[in-house]
Amino acid sequence: MERRKKHRTKGTKGTNGTSGTKGKFLAGLVCFIAPAIVLLAVWPAALPSISEGAANAQGSRARAGGRLVASKSAAPQTFNRLFATDEPTTSMTEPLVGHLVKINRQTQLPEPELAESWRVSPDGRRITFTLRRGVRFSDGQPFTADDVVFTFAVINDPNVAAPSADIFNIQGQRIQVEKVDALTVAFTLPVPYAGGVRLFDGPPILPRHILEPAWRAGRLRQEWGLGAAPERVVGLGPFKIKSYVPGQRLVLGRNEHYWKRSATGTRLPYLDELVFVIDRDRNTQLLKFQRGETDVLSPVNADDLAVLRPVERQGRIRIFDLGPSMIREVFWFNQHPGQRGGRPIVDPVKLAWFRETKFRQAVSSAIDRAAIVNLVFAGRAAEQYGFLSAGDRVWHNPNVPKFAYDPARARQLLEQAGFRYQGAQLLDAQGREVAFTLTTNAGNALRAKMSALIQADLAKVGMKVTLQAVEAQALLSRLGEGGDYEACLLAIVSGDADPTSHQNALLSRGSGHWWHPAQRQPATPWEARIDQLMQRQMGALNTAARKRLFNEVQSILGEQQPFIFLAARNLIVGAASDLGNLRPALLPDFLLWNCDEIYRR
Amino acid sequence: MWRIVIRRLLALAPLLLAVALGAFLLVRLAPGDFLSELSLNPQVSPETVAAMRERYGLDLPWYEQFGRWLSRAVRGDLGYSLACHCAVAGQIAVHVFQTTVLAAAGLGLALAAALPLGVWSVWKRSRMLDRAITAGVSILLAWPTFLWALGALLLAAGTGWFPIGGISSIENEKYSTAEKFIDLLHHLALPAAVVALKQAPHYLQTLRAGLAEAMVEDHIRAARARGVAESRLLVRHALRNAINPLLTMFGQGVGALLSGTFIVETVLSWPGIGSLAVGSLLARDLDMLVACLLYAAILLAMGNLLADLMLAAADPRIRRPQRG
Amino acid sequence: MGRAVRDTHWLKGLRRAWRASPRRLRFGVFVLGAFALAALAADFLAPYDPAMQDREHFHAPPATLYWMDQKGEWSWRPYIYRSRLEDRIEMIYREDRTQAFSLKFFVAREEYRLLGVLPCRVKLFGVDAPARIFLFGSDGLGRDVLSRLLYGARVSLSIAAAALLISFPLAIGIGSLAGYYGGAVDFVCMRAVELFLALPAFYLIIALSSALPRDVAPEARAASIMAMIALFGWASLARIVRGMVLGLRERDFVASARAAGCTDWRILRRHVWPQIAGLMLVQAALAAPGFMLAEVTLSYLGLGVQEPLPSWGGMLATGQNVLALTGFWWTLAPGAAILFVCFGFHMLADGLREALDPRAASLDWGD
Hints:
The structure holds three protein chains of three kinds.
Chain A: E1 2-4, H1 22-26, E2 30-31, E3 67-72, H2 87-93, E4 101-104, E5 109-112, E6 115-120, E7 126-131, H3 145-155, E8 176-181, E9 184-188, H4 208-216, H5 220-223, E10 239-245, E11 249-254, E12 273-278, H6 282-291, E13 296-297, H7 304-314, E14 317-333, E15 339-340, E16 343-344, H8 348-354, H9 357-366, H10 369-376, E17 381-383, H11 407-416, E18 420-422, E19 425-427, E20 435-441, H12 445-460, E21 464-470, H13 472-480, E22 487-493, H14 503-506, H15 525-539, H16 543-560, E23 563-576, E24 579-580, E25 599-600
Parallel strand pairs in A: 3-12, 20-21, 20-22
Antiparallel strand pairs in A: 1-6, 2-22, 4-5, 6-7, 7-9, 8-9, 10-11, 11-12, 13-23, 14-22, 14-23, 15-16, 17-23, 18-19, 24-25
Helix pairs in contact in A: 3-4, 9-11, 10-12, 15-16
Chain B: H1 2-29, H2 36-39, H3 46-56, H4 62-73, E1 80-81, E2 86-87, H5 88-124, H6 127-142, H7 145-159, H8 177-214, H9 218-225, H10 230-260, H11 262-267, H12 273-283, H13 286-314
Antiparallel strand pairs in B: 1-2
Helix pairs in contact in B: 1-4, 1-13, 5-8, 5-10, 5-13, 6-8, 7-8, 8-10, 10-13, 12-13
Chain C: H1 10-20, H2 22-40, H3 42-45, E1 66-68, E2 74-87, E3 92-102, E4 104-114, E5 118-126, H4 145-181, H5 183-198, H6 201-211, H7 218-231, H8 234-249, H9 252-259, H10 264-300, H11 312-317, H12 322-326, H13 333-356, H14 358-363
Antiparallel strand pairs in C: 1-2, 2-3, 4-5
């Protein structure tokens, strides 16, 4: 029986606050694409290394009151955290809700939250949560096991079709929930599921007394739409809605009934107000932060640093560079052998190249990753070779095969695979010119630069690359249908640090297995091997054993190069210097995940 | 005159229908739908996406979707925005107001600058002034809107005289009505100036060309021969003739503002129809997009109607019965 | 009254214009001609391939030409120094003063075909390797801004020219039809115009450009964008034409021509169009930069002409951040180019207007 004790974090009693798990639901893997119109473009790069601020959770110095203003690139789509799918909505609704457990974004491990403690049965299938006593919703109503049961009834309801609920749909089966007593809830998973506890950082606990009628009437989705009255939106988070001005700003106020207290016994949160202003344009966000109109900028782009450096020198803001993030730029070939409308999805001639391991390895060795790091991310990124970035502290395997920049080796690999050169142009064994289209999302300056670099690099080994920028939604629909592109450049973002969260990308039947999604049978022996390893790691409850299995998965991916990883940008965030208790981390929400503890000096 | 108005209003209905149909086809033309992004989320099962598609009617063929929309629209229901989980009508109202304010201010500023400057430059007949105006117009036209908007942002950030984007201060709710109005004007200044900068040269050049042509008309020459002062000639006689194409431009300027203000709205965080429409198009939020385009169509038709009425008022000959 | 029957023939007018107002017209023709020539001769004028990336020198500022050597004496030919990136955040380059590279004219490079036909291996200017000269600086990928500007002129000028050539005849035709015949014809034409205006071209172009097939070459893509911009550019102009024709229709000279038994076509050609020509030219001058900028807006959304084919719009769109304005101002060079072209268009339009209407010219300010 594995029993987890309360984790303590410096300075705060009990556990730490609720937070923005933007990615947890959003995705183990999400293609990272400008959601709004504009140049969401950039993220990366940064300045001095992680600061003392990370650790200075000095509860005693903390002062209550004040307001924190943050900018977001798009308006929220709903006030119901359960239905939030995009980043802005997720991070704006996260402070409104509470979860059973919470993943500490810095240690990347789960900690107790609304559940005081939990127990996992020896077979790994049953998790029993003991709920915290005396917790109240923001309207003063008590929180009990009934709310948890209600929440999971909603999540399991196929009519609600909550996107974020699907993480509890494990191999086609739903999770069972059972109320043991008023403060104890037990969940039964369909299969042993290592890291199962982490899933409970996902779903927000919903107030049964408010939402049950709407749910029964089938109007749950509309209930907390943007037109909802603020006082109707009730939650267990540190903040509640004060006002929403459409398209302009969302003002959150202190939740008087929030349960958490600081080490010194002060009721959290410290801040009176948390304001999200909506600025679609990146420049506006940057200049507002530079002028001090907003208090945080997360993430900061490498290019922004030139603008922010003078302000940082004045001491008005602090910049944290957290090192390689979990956003990995990736380039892959479409290996889908199927047909659509009687025509092959990928030209069979090209498909043969794309399915050739040596071809992919050659492409990987032909790409100058150092140039990408330098020119695209201003040096604030790490060259990326394997599936996980170094930011994934627990699971990253540093020993994956590396196809480092070496055009000579690329040519050699290509020749071994039967390709040959006619002058500078590469021909395949049948004498056809090697040429393909590289697709990426439009309006992203970083990716436009990267694709131009790749184009030039591959020209050096004789490949003719045509670039195509497709507006996001059109590109996404192509990916989802597994077709109509030859090669694609996007980013993979981990929303959580656990191997099981990558299942969809790695299992051959997964829809996020982009190079050849939703296979009935693994197409290759190595994909079959990955399936097998992933299955085994999910059932193994011992971390060392899982780590071994997942290391092998990473090695296979490194050798086969179905995903050709390029770079992991550094995660850089900026914050006003008078903010205390900042604990920026690589998991989202990078800066505001502990917004209940943040205070103004 | 009333006949024109009534006929135009009657003609508006098929126009709106055609615009709505066009919008549906437009979205059809571009691949993907509202759920495309979600369907790639690895933690969302294809079944869930399929269920949502069915619920929203996105699995239907476009003509059926259009039929559904139409049957609701005739009852005054503009539909449901997938992007904000709420009725379109409520969301769009605020944006309509904001765009109208911006557009009106921008147009007003542009005209206020172009009219006197145009008349004065023709009256002065100075080669230097003429060259300066041509150069100025070239600069205004040649620089893309986003550079002007970025420049405005930098001005705001550098001087602190204006807010950096947005439409109201965070404290706005605590203000009195008068303070709210001043706050609005303060926020409006830069975006309206940028809109005006891109509009004014069109008016200015058209006016100048019109005036130059009008000044050689026989009746003006005759008036000049009678000894009417040049300034009076310009304002009383020539301006009347030259205003004609200006009015036409004004009419469609109103309509073109939708695409014209998109960049300004985006860069300067002015939540209006332009950015809403582009956002809806990119996100494939169909009902919202249709509503935005309908609003644009109404605005355009109204602008044109207004221009035609003013044209008729300025030039009585046009009011004569049509040649049969 | 009215300018009655004018026998100003177009060609005659042009010839007269050349005499009557040579400077303004010549200036316009000169500016536009120079740009067109530069675009055609880009292979010769541009020191580098527009896709050439110097990854050591990205965002390098325009090269400083030195005329005096270190002893303070005039150098017989200007020279430059190589530079090295010193500060990656603030992008500061430091020159290496140890070795000077002089600017050379008519240097031999790889063979290319001038104007697509003449085999040629001489470029206008260059410096010896390993140095590179970025006269207008380099962009974020270390590509020469000057070279891209020259090659980009091909795309951007063609967009403007093609758009004008397609949309103006359309606009004049439909606008005159509506204005001249009035009644039902007018009604139908104007509703069509309204439909085109109400479904803003911009949105149609976004939708269309994301629906373009995957395998189109960058050149074909540029051409289709050109066509799209042109096809949607006519509507607003048609309304202006219609407004003007409407006014002219009731004039005495038109009425008398009609009474004299002239056909509608003849009336339009001989009496109506010459009257509106001046204003139309002004409209054309106003519209041309608009067409070039339409591509900027498309590029702003990343849907314009694709790399590595340079276009002014695409180049400007990469400058869509505050840093470009404050730090890398030279990447905005295409803005200046559009400005000159725009100015040239205005001069040309003014000159032509004078030419077509000599009386307006004689009365025009400044004589």
